[in-house]
């Protein structure tokens, strides 16, 4: 396992696979106006280092990938602002049907047509507040892949499940149900995000070593479902109260390939520092 000056590659010594770091900013239902959203995007672009400028390396896949998830109405304009920095955009959610009488829903084709490359699937807030079941999440993951986009599949245990000591069982169950029927080839376009629900928006960031153990465990589940190559190749983000203070420790872990950031992504300086993380060699 080694990293470059920008945090760089996660290199599995076992299989010679490379995992490009990926940082994602999930704005959730913020900011509340278009002008505030565009100002946030502009401020972030002024501060983030990307392969377009300071990374200074030839191969783009050695630099950190950055994705923003604005609310639906702001996606197009945010994309116009951030694309010059090599930052991409995604949708926070889609419905699994193609089109029709589904008032209030947004289809995968719609977000694809406005330039989304990623879609969040199975975020805990969708699971709990909007009753997103594993069956529905599985259908959404497949729909996102069908339209040539990349799902970021969020999994993780609740506080109660953590207290019961069943984190691994919960993660294994979610991975197997949410990825049911997804081929090994399609898995190459999937990113996982391990988000302990008790750490989301609480300020309780999971200990980096503990999170890394869960990430390693998730790879063992994937190795059984697919094979070792697939398990070592997939990128797994950590999410839950990530801050500029905690990011470097998390990114120093062997199996944490990026972060899914909520609250801190609403501050351009904080999220830029998170994207410009400094990882040390292990
Ligand atoms: O999607 C992001 C996660 O829910 C983490 O949110 P947070 O950084 O506010 O804890």
UniProtKB/TrEMBL annotation:
Keyword list, A-Z: Cytoplasm, Gluconeogenesis, Glycolysis, Isomerase, Signal
Gene3D superfamilies: Aldolase class I
Species, as recorded: Skeletonema marinoi
Sequence similarity: Belongs to the triosephosphate isomerase family.
Catalytic reaction(s) noted: D-glyceraldehyde 3-phosphate = dihydroxyacetone phosphate
GO BP terms: gluconeogenesis; glyceraldehyde-3-phosphate biosynthetic process; glycerol catabolic process; glycolytic process
The organism's place on the tree of life at top rank: Eukaryota
Subunit composition and interactions: Homodimer.
NCBIfam families to which the protein is assigned, alphabetical: tim
Listed name of the protein: Triosephosphate isomerase
InterPro entries hit by this protein: Aldolase_TIM, TIM_sf, TrioseP_Isoase_bac/euk, Triosephosphate_isomerase, Triosephosphate_isomerase_AS
CDD domains documented for this protein: TIM (cd00311)
GO cellular component: cytosol
């Amino acid at each position: 396992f080694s990293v470059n000056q920008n945090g760089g590659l996660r290199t599995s010594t076992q299989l010679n696979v490379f995992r490009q770091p990926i940082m994602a900013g999930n704005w959730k239902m913020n900011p509340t106006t278009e002008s505030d959203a565009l100002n946030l995007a502009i401020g972030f672009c002024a501060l983030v280092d990307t392969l377009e400028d300071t990374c200074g390396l030839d191969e783009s896949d050695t630099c950190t990938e950055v994705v923003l998830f604005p609310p639906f109405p702001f996606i197009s304009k945010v994309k116009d602002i951030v694309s010059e920095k090599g930052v991409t955009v995604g949708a926070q959610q889609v419905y699994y049907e193609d089109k029709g009488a589904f008032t209030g829903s947004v289809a995968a084709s719609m977000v694809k047509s406005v330039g989304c490359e990623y879609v969040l699937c199975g975020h805990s807030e969708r699971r709990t507040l909007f009753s997103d079941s594993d069956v529905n999440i599985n259908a959404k993951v497949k729909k996102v892949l069908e339209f040539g986009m990349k799902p970021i599949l969020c999994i993780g245990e609740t506080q109660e499940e953590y207290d019961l000591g069943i984190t691994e069982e919960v993660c294994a169950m979610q991975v197997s149900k949410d990825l049911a029927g997804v081929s090994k080839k399609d898995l190459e376009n999937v990113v996982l995000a391990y988000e302990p629900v008790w750490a989301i928006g609480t300020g309780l960031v999971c200990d980096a070593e503990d999170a890394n153990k869960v990430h390693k465990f998730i790879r063992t589940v994937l190795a059984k479902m697919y094979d070792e190559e697939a398990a070592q190749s997939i990128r797994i983000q950590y999410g839950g109260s990530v801050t500029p203070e905690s990011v470097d420790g998390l990114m120093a872990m062997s199996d944490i390939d990026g972060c899914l950031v909520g609250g801190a992504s609403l501050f351009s300086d904080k999220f830029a520092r998170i994207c410009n993380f400094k990882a040390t060699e292990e």
